[in-house]
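Progress report, Aim 2. The chain analyzed during this reporting quarter is listed below.
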Amino acid sequence: MTKVEYWVKMPFGPIHPGLEEPEKFILTLDGERIVDVDVKLGYNLRGIQWIAFRRNYIQIMYLAERMCGICSFSHNHTYTRAVEEAGGIEVPERAEYIRVIIGELERIHSHLLNLGVLAHDIGYDTLLHLTWLAREKVMDTLEAIAGNRVNYSMVTIGGVRRDIDGKKRRIILDMIKYYREVFPGIEDAFLHDPTIEARFRDTAIISKRVAMEQGAVGPTGRGSGIRDDARWSERLGVYPDLGIKPVMPQDVTGERPRGDVFDRMAVRIGELWGSLELIENALDAMPDGKIKTFPKDNILVAKLKLLVDGEGIGRYEAPRGELVHYVRGKKGSDKPLRWKPREPTFPNLFAVAEGVKGDQVADFVVAVASIDPCLSCTDRVAVVQDGKKKILTEKDLLRESIRKTREINSNIKGDPTPVGSSCSR
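Predicted structure tokens for the chain:
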């Protein structure tokens, strides 16, 4: 007798307690088993690239920094690297070391946050409070260095805005001492607790083949056995001099990677220790010298009008994975013709959508959390009208963006579109 399967479709989101930001997934279920996942993007579109068409290179840094609160340094850093490449601008060596320090502080901040979210999503709030209490130390350190716990505004085109003096160095070293005492307990709780192992092991397995096909990056890709890290593979800045290497699951667990939630979590734990070591090495090796190429922003804007004439690509290993920013400029203009970021969450979402097939529906929340998704910097536009999909051209999207903006603010007059601009977001 032929078995009859009854499949149902269940929406997950866009508003759900397991999601920090609104996004929608359509789960196809056979009872409690996930058969298929359809990823629906587009709930957090903010038109940042359209806004950038009316901004100069300096002003765009503040937009890039606000694409994601947790990766504010990563986006700004990657954008400035793209502009520096397009303009042939060299960064002072001391500034490169300071960039490493701020980037690794942000990585610690991000990973502790995600570990807490993972624990919370399985109802283990003791671990949530343990990790988020520890996270306060790195946020206080960032505030002491930059003045803000998030959105640090440390990076500028051609260097950094603020130096790390003796007092700030002592604050960082005090933080490192604190974490060397705290991290062993956090590591033991996540790696050896039977509750964690029962929920994370063999859940949402992303095979190495699927990870490569979907372009998975960061802890998601490394958790599946892909040995890649933009800091390492690109020999980024002074990272090679500081002993950078990709952290793999086997470095932490001693076992061959399975590509499950546990392995992705283990990579983040390993990177907590790696970031401490990189910060220490950077503090010890940081040379004296200036921290930026151009002393004032007005001078920088004037120089960029002369220097930027062509394309530049910035790459960086953000906490969630490889981040790419593309910039195209034209000599004589203080605005880029094109700015396009590619965020790590975009490919990782589709990788985990494949990996979760066959799992129980109760595991879907922790599966999504395991890639540490940032949905506000990922969203794309999808239009379905009268049951039919419509593909928007660049002109269509730009025209609709202008119309909507004028609805909100009737004081906007004229055509804000610069010559040669384009938009796909």
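The mean pLDDT is 86. Residues 381-425 form one domain. These observations will guide the mutagenesis work planned for the next reporting period.
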